[in-house]
Design brief:
Layout lengths: L13 E5 L5 H11 L3 E4 L5 H6 L4 E5 L5 H12 L8 E7 L4 H11 L4 E7 L3 H56 L3 H24 L4 E3 H9 L10 E4 L4 E3 H20 L9 E8 L6 E9 L12 H14 L4 E5 L2 E9 L10
């Protein structure tokens, strides 16, 4: 639609008119408005400002093009981003040295798509040319958007690769501290990498940026089923997490599960684990999670924190904004944490 003010700088779907003599500007504006083409008018003094706003097409009369204005337009064209090639429609007079004008402008404006029309001309011919130029300009915008998206994706990929490498480095460093030998180091390190890979694969295959808590739990616990039966009960309402939150939770659940298998409830045939979460009904709801072990050997609080405990406190604390409560109760390990749902919530999945 046309700009009702007719004089504001526009975007790539707008025509900028530079025609200061006679009633050319008024005629051109009315003609293009009739075809619902947005226009803006400019003068010699504000041409640079209008060009900086990024018009779709410049329509000008050749007599308006003084050497100074030709230079202003040339500077704008030179500074265009790589995707841009602003079309310029130049209206010529029959009595003018048109061949010489065309050669001079083509030399002055090498990075532009120039359309020359000799007056008088049929209005439909001019409108058709302007519409064609606008269409080309909008295709340039598509190229721009594609380039911007590519840059964004590369930055995001770089960011995620750095995060993954940092996680791998941290996992290796903290795993190596508690390893009794090289074989134990390799086994624990591989298991933690597999846990990291599973949740990344799940989110990628879902082609989204979110993953539900239930999916994270299934990915983490399913490998520990025996004969199709799991001794880890999972309860909670549908809650969707961001990719990063889902990855962190998966690693935390992996640590808890590994510890339960080695030392806790899952090291005994009748031992069980309950993992549950809930969301309160406040205007700014909190998400609470609980890991509870039962039926395992009597728990004794360690004399110093191992990798798993340190990781849980650091990761869950960063995720929820509050440190988790890790209780080494004699009847079974209990880990709880609560924090604002808004810190971890992803987009609801369809």
């Amino acid at each position: 639609m046309s700009d009702p003010n007719g004089d504001e700088p526009g975007a790539l779907d707008q025509v900028l008119i530079l025609a200061p003599y006679r009633r050319d500007a008024e005629y051109l504006g009315q003609l293009l408005n009739e075809y619902e083409i947005a226009v803006a008018h400019c003068t010699a003094t504000d041409l640079a400002a209008h060009l900086a706003a990024g018009p779709g097409v410049l329509v000008t009369t050749h007599e308006a093009l003084t050497p100074a204005l030709i230079a202003v337009i040339a500077e704008h064209l030179h500074d265009q981003p790589p995707w841009s090639e602003m079309p310029i429609v130049v209206l010529l007079d029959r009595a003018s040295p048109n061949a010489r004008i065309r050669v001079a402008l083509e030399a002055a404006w090498p990075r532009s798509r120039q359309l020359f029309y000799q007056r008088p001309l049929a209005p439909v011919e001019l409108v058709s040319g302007v519409q064609s130029a606008l269409l080309a300009r909008l295709r340039q915008r598509d190229v721009r958007d594609h380039i911007d998206r590519e840059v964004e994706l590369r930055r995001e990929l770089n960011h995620r690769v750095k995060n993954i490498l940092a996680s791998v480095s941290s996992i290796f460093e903290m795993t190596s501290r508690g390893a009794a030998d090289v074989e134990a180091l390799g086994e624990d390190f591989r298991a933690r990498l597999h846990a990291l890979a599973r949740v990344h694969s799940a989110v990628f295959e879902a082609q989204g940026e979110s993953i539900s808590i239930a999916e994270v739990a299934a990915l983490t616990f399913d490998p520990y089923r025996q004969a199709g039966v799991s001794r880890i009960e999972v309860h909670g309402p549908p809650v969707t997490l961001t990719r990063d939150a889902g990855t962190t939770l998966a690693l935390c659940l992996h640590e808890l599960t590994t510890n339960a298998i080695k030392y806790g409830a899952l090291s005994r045939p009748k031992g069980r684990v309950t993992f549950q979460w809930q969301v309160d009904a406040d205007l700014r709801p909190n998400l609470s999670m609980e890991w509870q072990e039962d039926g395992g050997p009597s728990v004794v609080a360690p004399s110093r924190s191992g990798y798993g405990t340190r990781y849980l406190r650091s990761a869950l604390g960063s995720l929820f904004g509050n440190k988790p409560d890790i209780d080494f109760a004699a009847g079974g390990l209990r880990c709880t944490v609560t924090g604002p749902l808004s810190r971890v919530a992803g987009e609801p999945q369809g």
